[in-house]
UniProtKB/TrEMBL annotation:
The keyword Repeat applies. It comes from the Eukaryota. Belongs to the WD repeat G protein beta family. Ribosomal protein RACK1 subfamily. Signal peptide: none annotated. Keywords: Repeat, WD repeat. GO terms for molecular function: ribosome binding; translation regulator activity. WD repeats lie at residues 50-73, 84-125, 126-158, 169-212, 213-254. It comes from Stylonychia lemnae (Ciliate). The keyword Repeat applies. This is Guanine nucleotide-binding protein subunit beta-2-like 1. SUPFAM superfamilies: WD40 repeat-like.
Length: 343
C-alpha cells in the first residue's frame, strides 16, 4: 500500500444500472451484487479498464467504466458490454486471471466455471463439490484454482477441471466461505476461512497446515490480502474486522461495528481497510485506528425500498489506480465512490 498524505474521504459519484438500445438490452443486475473485480483489456494501442460483476440473478456482467466528467456525479455510470449466463443458481464469487482474459466463477449450483471473456463463453465446468460453492481463487501464476463450499471442503484444481487435492487433514468443520492465494510466488500459501470461526493458512506445495487464526465469534464471511504486503483482513457475522500477519501467523488488531461485515477490501493507495456491512460502508484508517468514513447508501428506487431498511453492501472493488471504489449492494445496484481530499 502506498501512503497518501493528508486526509481523504469517499465522495459518491453515481450508480451503475444498464442500458437499452437496438443492439443491446441490459437493465443491470436483478439480484444482490455478490462479487466484483476490475480488469484491463488492450484495444489497439489503448489499455482500458472494465468491471466484472456477479449477482444473485445468476448472471455475470462486464462494464465499461471509463471515468466520467466532473459534471456527471449523481448520475448513471458505466456501460454494460456483455452479459454472461450459464450458472443455474446464485453467483457467489468471481476472480480474474492475471491478464484479465479469463474469469472464474463459483455458484450455489455446485459448480465452478472458467469463462473466456473475449468470446463470452464458458470453456470449462468444474464439478466436484457436493453442495453450493461459495468461493474461488486463481493462484498467482493462474495454474491452480482453489475453491470452498458448503460441503466443508477446500479443493485445489488445475485449469482443465481436474480436482488435484481435497483437504482432509486439519480440515474445516463447517462451510468454507472464503479462499485466497498469497500473491508472493516465493512463498506459496493458500488461505481459507469458514463458518467454523477459523482461518487456516496452508502451504500450497504440500497443502499442510501452517497456521490457524482464531479470533472471530461467529461465521467468517470475507477475506482480503493487502497489496504488496503480508497482511490479511477478515470480517464476519460478529461485526468484527481483524488484521493478521499472514506469514508470521500473528494477530495485529481489530475493529468492531454494530452489524455483520459482508466484505473487506484494502485500499491500494491509502492505509485503509474498507468494510462493506449490513448498514453500508465504513473505512478503517489503519494508522489512526479510527473509522474515517461512514456511508449509508440512499435508495435509488425509493418505491422499491422497504421503509427505513438499511441497504447492505455485499461486494467491493477498486479501480487500478485506487481512486475509484465500486460497491455492490443488496438493492441490485453498484454505486461508485471517489477518493477526494477532505474539505
Amino acid at each position: 500500500m502506498d501512503s497518501s498524505s493528508g486526509k481523504h474521504q469517499l465522495e459518491y459519484k453515481g450508480y451503475m444500472k444498464g442500458m437499452k438500445n437496438q443492439s443491446f438490452i441490459s437493465l443491470g443486475h436483478n439480484g444482490w451484487v455478490t462479487s466484483m473485480q476490475v480488469g484491463e483489456v488492450t484495444e489497439g494501442d489503448q489499455t482500458k479498464e472494465f468491471l466484472i460483476s456477479g449477482a444473485r440473478d445468476r448472471s455475470i456482467m462486464i462494464w465499461d467504466i471509463q471515468e466520467k466528467s466532473q459534471t456527471d456525479s449523481d448520475k448513471e455510470w458505466g456501460v454494460p458490454k456483455k452479459v454472461l449466463k450459464g450458472h443455474s443458481h446464485f453467483i457467489s464469487d468471481l476472480t480474474l486471471s492475471q491478464d484479465s482474459r479469463y474469469c472464474l466463477t463459483s455458484s450455489w449450483d455446485g459448480t465452478l466455471r472458467l469463462w473466456d471473456l473475449r468470446k463470452g463463453q464458458t470453456i470449462k465446468r468444474f464439478v466436484g463439490h457436493s453442495r453450493d460453492v461459495l468461493a474461488v481463487a486463481f493462484s498467482p501464476d493462474n495454474r491452480q484454482i482453489a475453491s470452498g463450499g458448503r460441503d466443508k471442503n477446500l479443493k485445489i484444481w488445475n485449469t482443465v477441471g481436474e480436482c488435484k487435492f481435497t483437504v482432509e487433514q486439519n480440515a474445516h468443520t463447517d462451510w468454507v466461505s472464503c479462499v485466497k492465494f498469497y500473491q508472493d510466488t516465493k512463498n506459496p500459501i493458500v488461505v481459507s476461512a469458514s463458518w467454523d470461526k477459523t482461518i487456516k493458512v496452508w502451504d500450497n506445495q504440500t497443502m499442510t497446515l501452517k497456521h490457524t487464526f482464531v479470533g472471530h465469534k461467529s461465521q467468517i464471511n470475507t477475506l482480503d490480502m493487502a497489496p504488496n504486503a503480508s497482511y490479511l483482513a477478515s470480517g464476519g457475522k460478529d461485526g468484527i474486522a481483524i488484521i493478521w500477519n499472514l506469514v508470521e501467523g500473528k494477530f495485529l488488531g481489530q475493529k468492531e461495528v454494530d452489524c455483520p461485515i459482508n466484505c473487506v477490501l484494502f485500499a491500494p493507495k491509502n492505509y485503509w481497510l474498507v468494510l462493506g456491512t449490513d448498514h453500508g460502508i465504513k473505512v478503517w484508517d489503519l494508522p489512526s485506528k479510527e473509522f474515517v468514513v461512514d456511508i449509508k447508501a440512499s435508495p435509488i428506487d425509493a418505491d422499491k425500498q422497504k421503509q427505513n431498511a438499511p441497504i447492505s453492501c455485499t461486494s467491493l472493488a477498486w479501480n487500478k489506480s485506487g481512486n475509484l471504489l465500486f460497491a455492490g449492494f443488496n438493492d441490485n445496484y453498484i454505486r461508485v465512490y471517489k477518493i477526494v481530499a477532505e474539505k
